Amino acid sequence: MVLLRFFARPSRNCLRTYAVASPSTIFLSTFTRHFHSTPPFFQDTATEMETVNTTERLSQLRGFMKDHKLDIYIVPSEDSHQSEYIAPCDARREYISGFSGSAGTAVVTLEKASLATDGRYFNQAEKQLDTNWELLKQGLQDVPTWQEWTAEQSEGGKTVGVDPSVITGSDARKLLEKIKKKGGAELKPVKENLVDLVWGKAKPSRPMEPVKIQPFEYSGKKFEDKFEELRKELEKRKSLGFVVSMLDEIAWLYNLRGNDIPYNPVFFSYAVITPTAATLYVDDSKLSPEVKSHLGDAVTIRPYDSVFGDIEALSTELTQTKGVETTPKKFLVSTRASWALNQSLGGADKVDEVRSPIGDAKAVKNEVELEGMRACHVRDGAALIEYFAWLEDQLITKSAKLDEVDGADKLEAIRSKHDRFVGLSFDTISSTGPNAAVIHYKPMKGNCSVIDPKEVYLCDSGAQYQDGTTDTTRTLHFGEPTEIERTAYTLVLKGNIALERVRFPKGTTGFALDTMARQFLWAEGLDYRHGTGHGVGSFLVLNVHEGPIGIGTRLQFSEVPLSIGNVISDEPGYYEDGKFGIRIENMIMVKEVETKFKFGDKPYLGFEHVTLVPHCRKLIDTSLLTAEEKAFLNEYHTEVFEKTKEFFKGDSLTLDWLKRETQPY
Amino acid sequence: MVLLRFFARPSRNCLRTYAVASPSTIFLSTFTRHFHSTPPFFQDTATEMETVNTTERLSQLRGFMKDHKLDIYIVPSEDSHQSEYIAPCDARREYISGFSGSAGTAVVTLEKASLATDGRYFNQAEKQLDTNWELLKQGLQDVPTWQEWTAEQSEGGKTVGVDPSVITGSDARKLLEKIKKKGGAELKPVKENLVDLVWGKAKPSRPMEPVKIQPFEYSGKKFEDKFEELRKELEKRKSLGFVVSMLDEIAWLYNLRGNDIPYNPVFFSYAVITPTAATLYVDDSKLSPEVKSHLGDAVTIRPYDSVFGDIEALSTELTQTKGVETTPKKFLVSTRASWALNQSLGGADKVDEVRSPIGDAKAVKNEVELEGMRACHVRDGAALIEYFAWLEDQLITKSAKLDEVDGADKLEAIRSKHDRFVGLSFDTISSTGPNAAVIHYKPMKGNCSVIDPKEVYLCDSGAQYQDGTTDTTRTLHFGEPTEIERTAYTLVLKGNIALERVRFPKGTTGFALDTMARQFLWAEGLDYRHGTGHGVGSFLVLNVHEGPIGIGTRLQFSEVPLSIGNVISDEPGYYEDGKFGIRIENMIMVKEVETKFKFGDKPYLGFEHVTLVPHCRKLIDTSLLTAEEKAFLNEYHTEVFEKTKEFFKGDSLTLDWLKRETQPY
Question: Peptidase M24 domain: from which residue to which, for each copy (chains A, B) (predicted)?
Answer without folding.
Answer: 371-592
